[in-house]
Structure formats: structure tokens, C-alpha cells
């Protein structure tokens, strides 16, 4: 819980990161896995890494309780499959080098020889025709497309010119080695350099070409990433040992293939088909013959370079020979449809085994995914049938309207939009919407063929299509192909083909009954292929629970009839109040493991987890605060949340037992009302809960809100001290008020007094006056440019003209910039807006001139040549006279930028917490220290006083002079309030670079201020430190040189270098360490109580918003 300032940068951690990057290590430990447990908690501190090549051979990496040896560090079991085999590099066709004329001629000749042109009349004729087409295509491929000759050293893109150059270099090298002549060596050297340049150019052009393709293709970027990751890798030819259901491992390829086959093609679940017998089907929809355009469209839509099936024919070959094959395919496909027969060649597949990414145990067969590579001719037929079924479903409304996926104009976005619209409608009606997401285990693999055919007939699908589907599903076979082994052909007796374009639409007909069963007056059902979402809308969450419970019983009935199984582990159930007992019953009913694992408990799970962690660390925090050295300083401020909770963040700043500065959030209570008494009570409750004694309480940093004064009165009365004396003011809040006064003013009376005797301004007049100041004019210009596409591009063109006219290369490399829009909450946004506008002043002025001329040309009257009054009334705001920035306005903006830059510098210097930080320039000293507050006030006031004199020369516009006066008044108001607490003066007086010399010199014109400050510091010393016992600590030896202080930027550095020339102050009533310190600060090592006071006061944070989350 505590974060110390001394351990913010770890060189060891940086070295570890460097090692991980250099060796490209990957983390094997699952994030969040506890590896270290102790009495009060657990953490992840033991990590396992491996190189990318080795990661592929990791079987699992997990905690193994069986290896526990009574250590608080849990044993991690990492298993690697060491059955390495030499990678078998397979040959591939060089499709880019295919000689198209030869391919077409041979296919045409062979097809004419093997096929006599007769109509196929039976199944044998169909198989013979398919065989003739496949043989003709393979013959053409063999004659026109060469094989690659890959090896482990093959480089993609190494063309023939590279090979010729390399051959020449080898010949010249051998000649030089034989003759050892200088001329031969020079020839060899030039050829070698030429080879290097050519290869480098080839690789560069190849990479640029891939990037260009990635920018033009939808999936090109992902191909580029895959190439960059795997360009130097050849996947190892092995699959890790796989585990049987009993846990034993198998190592032989045949055994591993059998395990994968059982996992990919499980025996079908027994479906309840009792309702099919005697079913009366409605009249079916007629199915016409397949047309030539259908075939051509299906072939053209297929990606040309997709991996081929067992016959080795890619879609690109079909594209090149489309006109030759079209007559034969037309006869073949229509014969298949009329006879209801799917050729055996179409039902053969090669199933490639791929690893699923992110699995923790690759010994389990379920960690692998089957990818079916089907023969391309069969996929053309399947695509035609899929298009026909989708057409019938859309035209004749055969499927539910909310059943998306697998059809045109019915994507995931449609399902999401419908659910969102229905949920928002329920909210607008004051109802509760609850969504149940169902998942079917192994959807495609467990399809019952009889039930699917029944569903097709029930939904009026033509009997021709049904019979073809029956043939398509029967007698299928697959060859399982692993990296190191290809299994024999295996019959597939269950499910529908993975990877077929026909499978998605078939499954839509298969589970359409489920969608319809879940559609009730109180529920809506949306499906995407095998995923089903059930939305219940009702008056309350308990009512929705009952509704979903009844719907789930209907879903179970569907699963029984269709031989399917739901996967409760993948269910998602969204509720806001899952603590409801009825909903808990549904959780237990759906999956008891959800309650056991405390998964998906509620929308407030994060909140409860935070509370749990807080309570778990609470005792440790109490001990740390109790054992801290010195005072505990407190800061609290209002935090807002998206659910409109009024929270107060309470932070504590202290030094631990080793005197290291620490900061910690001790509470985030909810304050229902922003009354000071309520806030003070919440803070007291947190302090009492943590057992903080009043003696340990130091000072408080709060913003300038009045309710904080009341809160401090309540806290002081309860803890026995004067709350106002312990209340410091947030310097950042004060600077914010002053900066806004400088920009826009915050006091109407001040304007009334400054405007040369003018009458009081009304609210409307004040608003108009504010808009006419230079910052207001600039704001209007910037907003108009940013919201208008026309002006945005116009402004970019103006900048590009200026860049193109530049005479130096550095300027010509610059890019156009955008104007920065300010906001109402952060004064720094106005500074950044002004700074960017001043940088682009020339472009802004040129933009306004050209835009005005362009607008006038567009709006001139053709008769008079002048802009009419009616059109002048519609002049764009950016061109109106009240928004034009004159030279005097730009000059004011220059001065405002200079003043606000000083404000920015002070804020950045004071924004810290007094801790050492790692910055770009190296380790820096502490910044944001308490003694810098007084110096910051002095710097800002002096700057404004200098500009007061400058403002006297600006009679118009008057806001500049008024803004400076208001900003100075606001700073001076809170500067004089520094004496509300002694903390600021104590920190300054105990600082060796300032002491009382700084006060005596800086406040020489205010001796009463110096006197009061000294009395306040003396009171603090006598009441809090003079009576303390001296704590024995190790100190630096007399001969040991003092540690060097790192140099860092500090705008107050010039003040800290002032010589201590004045006599040190020593009050007669303080005759102890404090008096000795003021007399001779060199004895600091002998004054432990003064050191204790200095440490306690220097740690105090000067911002109340240090812990506020960024809004």
C-alpha cells in the first residue's frame, strides 16, 4: 500500500527488461498467477521466460502443488517436449511463375481427350467427369508451374538476378584465390560490393512493396506482421507429447494423431428423433437448374491463393481456366443437383493441426484447432448451394429475422445494434434489461444429420437440395496432418465440414428452432451462427431471472432433440444486482463452478475486490503509521466518479522507520453532502479506524473552498488543536484562480472601477466584453477553424505554401500544425492555445485574408458587384469585425504568453511531492517543497508588478491592465493568508539556504511580517519539539565529506544563492537547539531535534489534488 520515494527506479529491473528485449523472451507464466503466498495475501513475483523458438515446445507452465516443500514460494512446473526432429521443408508450387498459355492449352487438350461431352446420367458418370477435370488441371499445372527447391537457408524474394550475381562473385573469388593477382582481387571486390548493394536494394524494395500492399488491402497489415515475425523461422517439425484422459502422455506420432482425431471428431451425441416419424412437411420451394453466371460468380469470388486441398489445385488455376471449364462444370453441377449426389472427390479433406494461441497447457488436445483444407472444385459447388439457401431464406423468410451471420446484410453489427436499441428502449420505459449469452459446445462437430435434414424439409427447402445435402454429409473422409506426421484417411461420420462455405448457412437452419423457442412476449433472441443471446425485459431483475430460467429450460429441450450440449463455463449473464438470491439460484443451476470460483458475481465486483484488498492490508497500514517517525500530514479533496458518487480521497504523507518519505491513500469515503461538518466527520472516521493518535497528526493541505474551513474546525475540535493553524492552502488552486483572473477576470466590481468611470456592467454586457478580449477573439477563430473541414484544409494549405517556400532543408521537413482548442476548466489550455497561435501567426492572418476574399467573391451580387447587406448579415463569425485580431491584440497575446509561461514554470516546479525523481536529464533533487511556496509567490508577484508598469502603456484594450491587477490581487490575497499556519515560515527558517536572512532582506519593508513569522515559528518549536527526547541515530563522521546534491532546474535558485550576511536572529526565550541553529547552522549534525522538526515540516505536500485521478 505504501509507495516510498527511495525505490522508484530499479537498475536491476531495467537490466532485466534489456535482457528480455535482446533475447526476445516471452513470458510463460500466466498473468495473475499467484507464485508467492504468505499469511495475509499472495502475489506474482516468480516469472518464467523462454525464447520464441523454445516457447513453441512448451507443453505447460503452471503451479504444481505436488512439488510443494513447505516454502512460501510455490513450485512452477514447466514441461518442454524435447523430441526434436529435423524440420521437413516441403516443396511448394511457384504459382507466380506459372506459364498461363501452357496451362490453358494443356487443360483444354486433356479435358477434350478425357471427356467425350456426354451428359452424366448416374453417380459413376459424375465421378468420372470430376476425375477427368482434376486430371486435366493437374496435367496443366505440372507442365506450366515449377516446384520450389526450399532449404533452411532460403530467402524470400531472392530472384534470378541475385543468383547470377552470386555465381559471378564465386567465380571471381576462386579466380583470385588461384592467381593472387591485384587485378583479379579488384574485380572480385567490386563484384562483392555490387552483390551487397543489390541484395540490400532488393530487400528494401521488397519490404516497401509489402508495406504498400498492406496499405491497400484489408488484411495486408496482418500478412505483413506475420511475415516480419516468421521470415527467419521454420516451424519445428514436432507436436508436443499429448495427454490421454487418464493423464498419461503419448509420444508416438500415430498415438498423437489418434488423440487429436478423437478430440476433433468426437462420436455424435444421441439426438431425440422421436418427433420426426410421421411428420407432415409443407410443400417445398422449387429449385431451378444452376446457371452459368452462378458458377462464374462463385469461382470469381474465391480467393486465388488460398491453400489447396488434397488435389493441389488452387482457385487461381480455376480463374485462369474458367472459360475452358465452364461448360463441363455446368453439366457436372446440374447433374449433381438433379441426382442428389455429391462426388466423392468433393468430400475429401486435409485437416491441418494448428496450436491455439495463449493456452497454458499444450499437452491437452483441446489446445489445438483443426483447419480443413477442401478441394477447390467442391468448394465452388458448395458456395453455389450456400448462396441458393441464403437466397431462399431471405426471399421466403425461412429463418428468424434476428438470426444473423452466414447471410448478406446480416452481420454481427446488426445483432449488436438491435440489442442496444432494445436495451435503451427498456431503460426509457423504466424497465430492467437482462441478457443471457449461450454457447454450444462443438457446434459443427455435433450436428445430427437426420435432424438437419428434417429441419430443411420443415422449412420448405427443395427436395433436390435436401438430397444433395444428405449426400454431402455422408461418407466424408479426412486426412489429419501434423507437423511431423500425416495420418491415414479417416472416415468422418458426424457433424458438418469445418471450413466449407456451405456449413454456416446449414447451421442457421439447424438451430433456427432455438431462436424461435426463445422468442416470447418478455424476451428477444438474437443469434449469430451458433451463439445465441437472450434478452429479457421486465419490471425488475428478479422477474427477469424467472423468465430466463424458463427460457433456459426450452433451450435444454432443443439441445436434447438436436444432440447438442451447452457450455455453462462460457455463459455470460449480465446483471447489476447479482446478489439477488433468485439470480444466485440460476447461477448454481447453470454452473455450480461459477459460484465456487466467484466468477461474474456482479457489476460491483471491482468495488468489492478493492474493499477486500483494503481490509486485507489495513492492519499493515496501521502498523506503518504507528511506527512512522515524525508527523503524519493529511490532504483530502473531492473526487468524482462516472456514477455521480461524491467521494473524498484522503492521502497521508509521512516518513517511515528508516526516515524514507512515503505517501499512501488511507481512505475514499463517500460524502453525501458537501457540508464542512460532513467532510470533517468522514476524515475523522478514517483516522479513528486506522488508530491515528492526535499527537501524530501534522498539517492539512486543502483547496480554498470555504467548507474546508468548517471541516478543519470540526477536526481540530475533535483532536484537540486549532484546526485553522493546521490548515494549509493548495498552491495549485491559488495559481489557477490567479491565472483565470489574468485571462478573463473574476470580479465585476474591479471592472467597474477600472473602466474610467463607466457604469456597472450587466451580465450580458460582461459576457460580450469577455468575448471581445484578444483571448476570446482567438478562441472564436480557433474553434471555427477546427470545426470546419473547409477551414481546416485551407489552413493546412496555407502552411504548406510557407513550408515549400523555405530555403533550408530543416524547415522544409516541417509538417503543418493544428491550432489548439482551449477549454473552460484548465488555464493551461489557454496558454497552449496562445502559444500555438503565436507560432502560426503568419499562417492565421493569411488564412483570414484569403478566406475573406474567397467568401466575398462567392457572395457578390452579379448586378452590382458588391456584397449585399442581407448576405453581410450571414457573414461567418470568423470574418466579423469583432473577432479580428489587430496588431495590438497580438501584442497583448505575446505578453500574456510570457506571463503565463512564468505561471507554468512555477506550477511545474511546485507540482511535485518533495521526492527525488528520475527525469530526462538524470536524477533530480526534490521539487514541490514547502519552502518553495513563499518563493513561488514572490516570483509571481514580482513578475506581475513588472507587467503592471508595462500595462500602463496599453490604454486600449483595457482588459490587459485589469487582468494583471486582478491576478496580482488574487495572489496577494492568498499570500497574506500564509500566516494562517506556521508551516511555511517554519520550513523556510529551518532551511540552511534561507533561515531568517531571507525574510529580513525580502520583507525589509514589512518588519511586522517578519516579527509575526518569528513568533509563530518559536511557538511551534516550544510546543511541539523542544520537550522531545533525543533519539539516538547513526550520523556522519566529522571527517566524512557531505553528500553532493544533484543539480536540477529550479526557477527559485537565484533566491537560494543569496549570502547570509545579516546577523542571525536569536530570541532570548529560546535558549536551546533552535537558538544554536540560528546562530551557527554548521552545527546541524549536533541538533537532532531541529533536524526532526525540519524533516517533519519539509515532507508536507503543498497540493490538495496530488492524488486526484485525471478527469
Automatic annotation (TrEMBL):
Its main location: mitochondrion. It is found in: Mitochondrion. One of its GO terms (molecular function) is RNA-directed DNA polymerase activity. It holds the Pfam family Exo_endo_phos_2. Residues 335-594 form the Reverse transcriptase domain. PANTHER family: ENDONUCLEASE_EXONUCLEASE_PHOSPHATASE DOMAIN-CONTAINING PROTEIN-RELATED, REVERSE TRANSCRIPTASE. This is Reverse transcriptase. It comes from Metarhizium robertsii (strain ARSEF 23 / ATCC MYA-3075). The lineage of its organism: Eukaryota, Fungi, Dikarya, Ascomycota, Pezizomycotina.
Amino acid at each position: 500500500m505504501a509507495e516510498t520515494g527511495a525505490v522508484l527506479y530499479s537498475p536491476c529491473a531495467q537490466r532485466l527488461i534489456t535482457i528480455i528485449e535482446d533475447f526476445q523472451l516471452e513470458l510463460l507464466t500466466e498473468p495473475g498467477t499467484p507464485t508467492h503466498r504468505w499469511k495475509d495475501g499472495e502475489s506474482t513475483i516468480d516469472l518464467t521466460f523462454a525464447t520464441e523458438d523454445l516457447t513453441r515446445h512448451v507443453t505447460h507452465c503452471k503451479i504444481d502443488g505436488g512439488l510443494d516443500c513447505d516454502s512460501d514460494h510455490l513450485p512452477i512446473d514447466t514441461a518442454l517436449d524435447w523430441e526434436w526432429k529435423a524440420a521437413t521443408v516441403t516443396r511448394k508450387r511457384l504459382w507466380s511463375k506459372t506459364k498461363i498459355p501452357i496451362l490453358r492449352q494443356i487443360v483444354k487438350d486433356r479435358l477434350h481427350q478425357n471427356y467425350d461431352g456426354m451428359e452424366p446420367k448416374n453417380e459413376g458418370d459424375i465421378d468420372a467427369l470430376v476425375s477427368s477435370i482434376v486430371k486435366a488441371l493437374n496435367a496443366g499445372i505440372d507442365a506450366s508451374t515449377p516446384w520450389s527447391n526450399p532449404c533452411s537457408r532460403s530467402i524470400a524474394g531472392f530472384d534470378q538476378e541475385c543468383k547470377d550475381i552470386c555465381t559471378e562473385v564465386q567465380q571471381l573469388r576462386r579466380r583470385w584465390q588461384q592467381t593472387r593477382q591485384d587485378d583479379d582481387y579488384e574485380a572480385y571486390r567490386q563484384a562483392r560490393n555490387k552483390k551487397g548493394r543489390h541484395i540490400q536494394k532488393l530487400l528494401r524494395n521488397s519490404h516497401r512493396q509489402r508495406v504498400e500492399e498492406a496499405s491497400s488491402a484489408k488484411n495486408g497489415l496482418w500478412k505483413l506482421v506475420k511475415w516480419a515475425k516468421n521470415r527467419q523461422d521454420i516451424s519445428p517439425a514436432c507436436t508436443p507429447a499429448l495427454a490421454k484422459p487418464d493423464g498419461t502422455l503419448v509420444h508416438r506420432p500415430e498415438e498423437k494423431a489418434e488423440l487429436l482425431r478423437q478430440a476433433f471428431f468426437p462420436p455424435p451425441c444421441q439426438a431425440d428423433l422421436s418427433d420426426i416419424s410421421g411428420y407432415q412437411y409443407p410443400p417445398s420451394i422449387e429449385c431451378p437448374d444452376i446457371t452459368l453466371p452462378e458458377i462464374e460468380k462463385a469461382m470469381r469470388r474465391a480467393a486465388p491463393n488460398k491453400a489447396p486441398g488434397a488435389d493441389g489445385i488452387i482457385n487461381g488455376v480455376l480463374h485462369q481456366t474458367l472459360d475452358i471449364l465452364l461448360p463441363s462444370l455446368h453439366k457436372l453441377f446440374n447433374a449433381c443437383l438433379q441426382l442428389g449426389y455429391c462426388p466423392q472427390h468433393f468430400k475429401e479433406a486435409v485437416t491441418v493441426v494448428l496450436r491455439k494461441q495463449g493456452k497454458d497447457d499444450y499437452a491437452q488436445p483441446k489446445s489445438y484447432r483443426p483447419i480443413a483444407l477442401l478441394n477447390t472444385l467442391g468448394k465452388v459447388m458448395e458456395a453455389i448451394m450456400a448462396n441458393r439457401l441464403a437466397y431462399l431464406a431471405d426471399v421466403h423468410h425461412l429463418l428468424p429475422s434476428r438470426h444473423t451471420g452466414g447471410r448478406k446484410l446480416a452481420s454481427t453489427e446488426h445483432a449488436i445494434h438491435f440489442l442496444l436499441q432494445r436495451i435503451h428502449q427498456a431503460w426509457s420505459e423504466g424497465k430492467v434489461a437482462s441478457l443471457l449469452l449461450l454457447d454450444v459446445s462443438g457446434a459443427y462437430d455435433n450436428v445430427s444429420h437426420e435432424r438437419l435434414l428434417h429441419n430443411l424439409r420443415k422449412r420448405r427447402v427443395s427436395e433436390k437440395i435436401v438430397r444433395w445435402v444428405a449426400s454431402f454429409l455422408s461418407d466424408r473422409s479426412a486426412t489429419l496432418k501434423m507437423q511431423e506426421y500425416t495420418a491415414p484417411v479417416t472416415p468422418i461420420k458426424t457433424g458438418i465440414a469445418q471450413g466449407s462455405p456451405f456449413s454456416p448457412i446449414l447451421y442457421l437452419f439447424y438451430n433456427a428452432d432455438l431462436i424461435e423457442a426463445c422468442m416470447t412476449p418478455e424476451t428477444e433472441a438474437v443469434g449469430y451462427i451458433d451463439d445465441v443471446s437472450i434478452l429479457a425485459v421486465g419490471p425488475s431483475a428478479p422477474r427477469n431471472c424467472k423468465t430466463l430460467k424458463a427460457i433456459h429450460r426450452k433451450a435444454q429441450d432443443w439441445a436434447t432433440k438436436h444432440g447438442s450440449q451447452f457450455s455453462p463455463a462460457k455463459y455470460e449473464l449480465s446483471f447489476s444486482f447479482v446478489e439477488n438470491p433468485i439470480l444466485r439460484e440460476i447461477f448454481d443451476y447453470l454452473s455450480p463452478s461459477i459460484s465456487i470460483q466467484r466468477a461474474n458475481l456482479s457489476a460491483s465486483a471491482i468495488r468489492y475486490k478493492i474493499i477486500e484488498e483494503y481490509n486485507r492490508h489495513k492492519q499493515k497500514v496501521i502498523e506503518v503509521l504507528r511506527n512512522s517517525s515524525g508527523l503524519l500530514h493529511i490532504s483530502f479533496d473531492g473526487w468524482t466518479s462516472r456514477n455521480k458518487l461524491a467521494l473524498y480521497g484522503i492521502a497521508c504523507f509521512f516518513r517511515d522507520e528508516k526516515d524514507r518519505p512515503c505517501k499512501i491513500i488511507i481512505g475514499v469515503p463517500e460524502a453525501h453532502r458537501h457540508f464542512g461538518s460532513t467532510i470533517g466527520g468522514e476524515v475523522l472516521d478514517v483516522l479513528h479506524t486506522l488508530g491515528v493518535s492526535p499527537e501524530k497528526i501534522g498539517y492539512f493541505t486543502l483547496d480554498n473552498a470555504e467548507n474546508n474551513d468548517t471541516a478543519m474546525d470540526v477536526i481540530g475540535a475533535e483532536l484537540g488543536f486549532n484546526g485553522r493553524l493546521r490548515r494549509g492552502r493548495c498552491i495549485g488552486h491559488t495559481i489557477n484562480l490567479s491565472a483565470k483572473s489574468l485571462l478573463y477576470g473574476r470580479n465585476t466590481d474591479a471592472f467597474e472601477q477600472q473602466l474610467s468611470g463607466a457604469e456597472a456592467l450587466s451580465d450580458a454586457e460582461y459576457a460580450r466584453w469577455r468575448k471581445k478580449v484578444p483571448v476570446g477573439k482567438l478562441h472564436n477563430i480557433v474553434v471555427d477553424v477546427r470545426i470546419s473541414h473547409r477551414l481546416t484544409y485551407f489552413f493546412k494549405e496555407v502552411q504548406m505554401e510557407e513550408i515549400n517556400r523555405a530555403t533550408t532543408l530543416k524547415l522544409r521537413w516541417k509538417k503543418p500544425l493544428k491550432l489548439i482548442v482551449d477549454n473552460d476548466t484548465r488555464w493551461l489550455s489557454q496558454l497552449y492555445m496562445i502559444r500555438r497561435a503565436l507560432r502560426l501567426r503568419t499562417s492565421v492572418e493569411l488564412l483570414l485574408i484569403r478566406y475573406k476574399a474567397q467568401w466575398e467573391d462567392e457572395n457578390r451580387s452579379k448586378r452590382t458587384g458588391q456584397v449585399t447587406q442581407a448576405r453581410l448579415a450571414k457573414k461567418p463569425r470568423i470574418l466579423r469585425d469583432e473577432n479580428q485580431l489587430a496588431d495590438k491584440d497580438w501584442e497583448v497575446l505575446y505578453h500574456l504568453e510570457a506571463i503565463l509561461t512564468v505561471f507554468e514554470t512555477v506550477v511545474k516546479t511546485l507540482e511535485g511531492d518533495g521526492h527525488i525523481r528520475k527525469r530526462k536529464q538524470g536524477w533530480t533533487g526534490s521539487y514541490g517543497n514547502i519552502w518553495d511556496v513563499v518563493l513561488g509567490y514572490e516570483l509571481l508577484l514580482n513578475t506581475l508588478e513588472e507587467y503592471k508598469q508595462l500595462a500602463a502603456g496599453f490604454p486600449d484594450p483595457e482588459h490587459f491592465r485589469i487582468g494583471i491587477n486582478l491576478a496580482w490581487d488574487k495572489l496577494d490575497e492568498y499570500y497574506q493568508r500564509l500566516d494562517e499556519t506556521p508551516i511555511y515560515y517554519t520550513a523556510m527558517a529551518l532551511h540552511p539556504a534561507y533561515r531568517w536572512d531571507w525574510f529580513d532582506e525580502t520583507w525589509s519593508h514589512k518588519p511586522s511580517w517578519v516579527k509575526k513569522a518569528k513568533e509563530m515559528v518559536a511557538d511551534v518549536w516550544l510546543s511541539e519539539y523542544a520537550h522531545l527526547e533525543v533519539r539516538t541515530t547513526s550520523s556522519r563522521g566529522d571527517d566524512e565529506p557531505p553528500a553532493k546534491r544533484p543539480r536540477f532546474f529550479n526557477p527559485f535558485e537565484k533566491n537560494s544563492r543569496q549570502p547570509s550576511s545579516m546577523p542571525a536572529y536569536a530570541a532570548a526565550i529560546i535558549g536551546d537547539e533552535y537558538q544554536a541553529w540560528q546562530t551557527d547552522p554548521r552545527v546541524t549534525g549536533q541538533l537532532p531535534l531541529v533536524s526532526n522538526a525540519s524533516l517533519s515540516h519539509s515532507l508536507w505536500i503543498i497540493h490538495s489534488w496530488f492524488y486526484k485521478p485525471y478527469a
